[in-house]
Amino acid sequence: MSWKFEKRRHTSRVLDFSASGAFIVTDDVVAVGSSLKLIFAMVEGELKLDAVVRNATAGKGMGVEFVSIGAKQFALILKALKRLRAL
Prior knowledge:
This protein is 17% helix and 53% strand. It has one helix spanning 71-85; strands at residues 2-5, 8-11, 13-17, 21-25, 35-42, 45-57, 61-67. Strand 1 (2-5) and strand 2 (8-11) form a beta hairpin. The chain starts with a strand and ends with a helix. The model has no long low-confidence stretch (mean pLDDT 94).
């Protein structure tokens, strides 16, 4: 997945993914309360979401909450979760 903060783009992996948020593994944590743009490349399709950093731990990563999720985005999230649970 990739995420954008201010004008910088980062590529990271996701440790945890749910219908309401994710934990992004990165050394480049940003301040709690910061807004991010997220892009997930998934089997189900590309998912673009706005998110807010809810917790951050230097050297580990940050937990983000998805905000302003539309119906199409939410349907993609649910399809991805169904696939991931089957693994």
